[in-house]
Design a protein that fits this description.
8 helices, alpha/beta, six-stranded mixed beta sheet, single chain, three-stranded antiparallel beta sheet
Length: 264
């Protein structure tokens, strides 16, 4: 069975987001997770306290040795941090993974507000990685930066998503979690069609790592051969249950229950 996912992202020492959330998600959904670590962070549920970037050539080397030996059925990209890392990842993808589906989560800001992408790096993200994306998964603030437009309602979400497709992404999952209201609505824009996903908003502080988790859940679905609408639907259901059954750890934005699919 397919299901090999190479995750290119930063490490979260608190275990709720980043590489740690990605590995848990891929494993819980029956896939095999591999990693290229882009940054080390000292963080917990209260925020990011320090970031230590991995040298770009070492990021690329991690990718190369994994892809040349084990291979991948999908690639998930999360935190990259700076333009040099973005350039290194884009070059490595072109050289070693030209045909592998890419799920790009444009991580810019942590749940607690810390910047995870340098200000001058968004241009490199747009020019180098966005055109490689099989699926782009921005939240509202990220989409506003990438599409250079404000988003206030569902129509704006659709317009921004279409602008990002015009910029090169093959499909865009516009995440509506930052919108007000009791219902959370996401839009999957792919070619000429739109899939609308809605679910009741869960009022909880335990949402650390939801973006990482959702993107990785989509990636493992793609790796296992699901069509994008089915991969997204399963990923959303997985994340909703992970939020509902969150363990309640920490004093801030707590982690999800990534293991709910395998726990008793």
């Amino acid at each position: 069975m397919k299901g090999r996912v190479l995750i290119i992202a930063g490490s979260d020492s608190g275990g709720g987001a980043g590489i740690q959330a990605d590995i848990k998600t891929v494993t819980a959904l029956g896939g095999f997770a591999m990693t290229a670590v882009t940054a080390l962070t000292a963080q917990n549920t209260l925020g990011v306290h320090a970031i230590h970037d991995v040298p770009p050539d070492f990021i690329a080397q991690q990718m190369r040795v994994v892809l040349e030996d084990i291979g991948a059925d999908a690639i998930k990209i999360g935190m990259l941090g700076n333009a040099a890392a973005i350039e290194a990842v884009a070059d490595a993808l072109s050289a070693y993974a030209p045909e592998i589906p890419i799920i790009l989560d444009p991580v810019m800001v942590a749940k607690g507000g810390a910047a995870l992408l340098e200000d001058d790096a968004s241009g490199a993200l747009i020019s180098r990685l966005l055109p490689m994306a099989t699926l782009l998964t921005p939240n509202i603030p990220e989409a506003e930066v990438l599409a250079a437009r404000s988003i206030a309602d569902i129509d704006d979400m659709e317009a921004a998503g279409r602008a990002l497709i015009d910029a090169g992404a093959k499909a865009v999952l516009m995440k509506g979690g930052h919108m007000e209201g009791d219902v959370l609505t996401d839009l999957l824009i792919e070619g000429g069609r739109i899939e609308i996903y809605s679910s009741p908003r869960q009022e909880t502080a335990h949402t650390h790592g939801t973006g990482c988790t959702l993107a990785s859940a989509c990636a493992v679905g793609v790796a296992q051969g699901l069509e994008l609408p089915q991969a997204v639907a399963r990923a959303r259901d997985y994340v909703q249950e992970a939020i509902r059954t969150a363990p309640g750890y920490g004093s801030g934005h707590g982690p999800l229950n990534h293991g709910h699919t395998i726990s008793d």
